[in-house]
Structures are given as structure tokens and as C-alpha cells.
């Protein structure tokens, strides 16, 4: 069986053939300069947080938070702050832990019922979190895999040594729901968004604890979702064709694997690689040292940027694809 291209090579392959999504050099330069000016700030660090099994539970269910109707969003309030989107999941898992639900124990979440998970993920209002059945399926599957490999995420991931590339390969091989692949122009490609985030979050936790050095972090790309591409369009890095922009503005759903959906994700990956290359060149030429800001850190900056500027970016539609991959 043909192995799919790795995410970085997939991004380049798609970007070189894309018909509806284009990378603009001026935008690449602009974002590289933005990041250059932030190169010594906390904005460009991997901030570590939470326990590893918490990270596994959240990253396993980290997909498809956009509402069918913008006016009706799933909301979760935790410690008097109300969250929407991805943060509803984080808040719901933390709330469940405080309520005494052993939600981060694979022995529990590998065999919890859909009803039990529904209670954990309950919304404050009538709008439930999307895809609870699918979240249940991937979480119980992930829990069973952890139980087969020592009973924790730490013991599972330790099989890959301290190599980020091997970690991604292990996750994708052993846990089917993390296998984020497509076919484009007859070529098998991969984006592996959640597997890469899981490795990046593991790295962030280890950095925060001052434990262990993880090699090959530069193999990770940005995490191709629906929020960061919107920011890349807003910043002038990506440009959509008129036909694609019109389809998105009309609310057309793009099926997972649709050519246009693959082009949005692939060009997002490759554009961030180009931004990273440009940033490294600027740091080397201007400051005289080797820059260690990788694509994961650039994504860690762009995703909150998109959330903070969501009002200014409201005229740029996000692409809607209901799937378990992002």
C-alpha cells in the first residue's frame, strides 16, 4: 500500500497544483515581519499546561465546533466564564473532573456510555455540542489503545522515544481516528492535524515541566483546521478564487476530501512553511543567530490571533466540513 505524503510534503504538493486557493508572497512577508517583531516575546512560546491524560482526552475530541446556526452556539460556563467553540470542550472536561468524574482515566473513558459523555459535554443552553456520538466513538477507541499500551498517554507515547516524527507516526498507526488523509490529483496525502497537535501539546507540557528534550519538532506543520485559514486570508497570505469565496459565503458545506477543502488545508500548511522559512532567514541575516521558532509555535500564535480578531474577520467565511479530523 502506498504511504501518504507527510503533511509538509502534502502541503507543497497541493499548493503547487491548487486551482482555488493561492499563496501570496506579500502576505507571507507581512506575517514573517509580524513574527520577527514578536520573536523575543511570550507570544511565540509553547505554553505548557494541564496533565497529559487531560491533553489526550481533549485532543482526541478536538474537532468540529462550528455551529449549524451562528446565532445558536453551544456554551459551557466554568468558574463564571462562558466559553464557545473549542474552549467549551476544555471547560467541560475540567468541570467534569471537579465534579468527580474520572474523565481522564482510560479505564473509565474507554468504556463510558454515550449518555455519560453527553452529560460531561452538556451545554448551558438548548444547543448541544456537535457530533457527541462521534466524540464518544473516538474517545472510547483511544482509551482502549492506551489500556493496551501501559494505561496512560505517557506510557503509550514513550514507545516513540523522544522523536516528534515517530510520535505522530505511532499515533496515526495505532489510533485510526487520528488518520487524517485524503487523495489529491491521484496522490495520497496526509494532514494529521490532531496527531500533530497532540505531539505539540505533549512537547508543551514537557517544556513547562522542564522534562525531557523532544527532537524533530521541526517535522510538525501548522494544524490545518478551519480557523487558521481564515486568519491567513485576513492577513493576505492566502487568497481564495471568486468561485470558492462565493460558495463559502453561500454556506456551502464542503465534504471531507473535497478538492477545495483539501486545497484550503494544504495551502495553509505550505504558506506557514514559507512564513517560517522567511522568518528564519530574517533572523539569521539581521540578528546573526539560528531561529528555533517552528510551525507549531506559529500556529500557537495564529489560532488565538484568529479568535481575538474574529469581529474584524467576520467578512471572511470559514469553510464548513463536518468531520472528526478538525
> Average pLDDT value?
95
Low-confidence regions: none
Main sheet specs: 2 strands, antiparallel
Structural class: mainly alpha
Structure description:
The chain has 326 residues and is mostly helical. The protein has one domain. 50% of the residues lie in helices and 6% in strands. It has 14 helices and 6 strands. It has helices at residues 7-15, 25-37, 52-60, 86-98, 106-109, 114-120, 132-148, 153-157, 164-174, 193-209, 227-234, 242-249, 259-287, 295-308; strands at 21-23, 76-78, 81-83, 181-184, 187-190, 238-240. The protein has a two-stranded antiparallel sheet with strand order 1-6. A two-stranded antiparallel ribbon has the order 2-3. A hairpin with a 2-residue loop joins strand 4 (181-184) and strand 5 (187-190). The two termini are 25 Å apart. The model has no long low-confidence stretch (mean pLDDT 95). Belongs to the QNG1 protein family. Its EC number is 3.2.2.-. This is Queuosine 5'-phosphate N-glycosylase/hydrolase.
Amino acid at each position: 500500500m502506498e504511504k501518504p505524503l507527510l503533511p509538509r510534503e502534502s502541503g507543497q504538493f497541493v499548493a503547487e497544483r491548487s486551482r482555488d486557493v493561492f499563496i501570496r508572497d506579500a502576505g507571507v512577508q507581512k506575517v514573517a515581519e509580524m513574527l520577527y517583531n514578536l520573536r523575543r516575546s511570550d507570544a511565540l512560546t509553547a505554553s505548557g499546561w494541564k496533565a497529559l491524560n487531560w491533553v489526550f482526552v481533549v485532543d482526541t475530541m478536538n474537532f468540529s465546533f462550528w455551529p449549524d446556526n451562528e446565532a445558536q452556539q453551544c456554551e459551557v460556563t466554568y468558574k463564571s466564564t462562558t466559553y464557545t467553540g473549542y474552549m467549551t470542550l476544555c471547560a467541560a472536561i475540567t468541570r467534569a473532573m471537579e465534579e468527580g468524574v474520572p474523565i481522564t482515566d482510560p479505564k473509565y473513558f474507554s468504556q463510558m456510555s454515550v449518555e455519560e459523555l453527553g452529560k460531561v459535554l452538556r451545554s448551558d443552553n438548548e444547543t448541544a455540542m456537535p457530533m457527541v456520538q462521534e466524540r464518544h466513538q473516538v474517545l472510547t477507541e483511544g482509551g482502549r489503545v492506551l489500556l493496551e499500551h501501559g494505561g496512560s498517554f505517557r506510557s503509550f507515547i514513550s514507545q516513540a522515544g523522544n522523536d516528534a516524527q515517530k510520535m505522530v507516526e505511532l499515533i496515526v498507526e495505532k489510533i485510526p481516528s487520528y488518520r487524517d488523509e485524503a487523495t489529491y490529483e491521484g496522490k495520497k496525502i496526509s494532514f494529521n492535524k490532531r496527531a500533530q497537535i497532540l505531539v505539540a501539546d505533549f512537547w508543551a507540557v514537557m517544556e513547562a515541566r522542564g522534562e525531557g528534550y523532544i527532537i524533530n519538532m521541526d517535522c510538525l506543520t501548522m494544524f490545518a483546521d478551519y480557523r487558521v485559514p481564515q486568519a491567513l486570508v485576513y492577513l493576505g497570505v492566502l487568497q481564495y478564487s471568486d468561485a470558492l469565496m462565493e460558495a463559502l459565503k453561500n454556506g456551502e458545506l464542503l465534504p471531507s476530501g473535497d478538492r477545495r477543502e483539501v486545497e484550503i488545508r494544504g495551502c495553509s500548511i505550505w504558506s506557514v512553511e514559507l512564513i517560517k522559512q522567511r522568518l528564519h532567514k530574517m533572523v539569521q541575516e539581521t540578528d546573526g543567530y539560528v531561529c528555533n521558532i517552528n510551525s507549531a509555535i506559529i500556529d500557537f500564535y495564529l489560532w488565538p490571533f484568529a479568535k481575538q480578531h474574529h469581529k474584524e474577520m467576520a467578512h471572511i467565511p470559514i469553510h464548513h466540513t463536518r468531520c472528526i479530523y478538525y
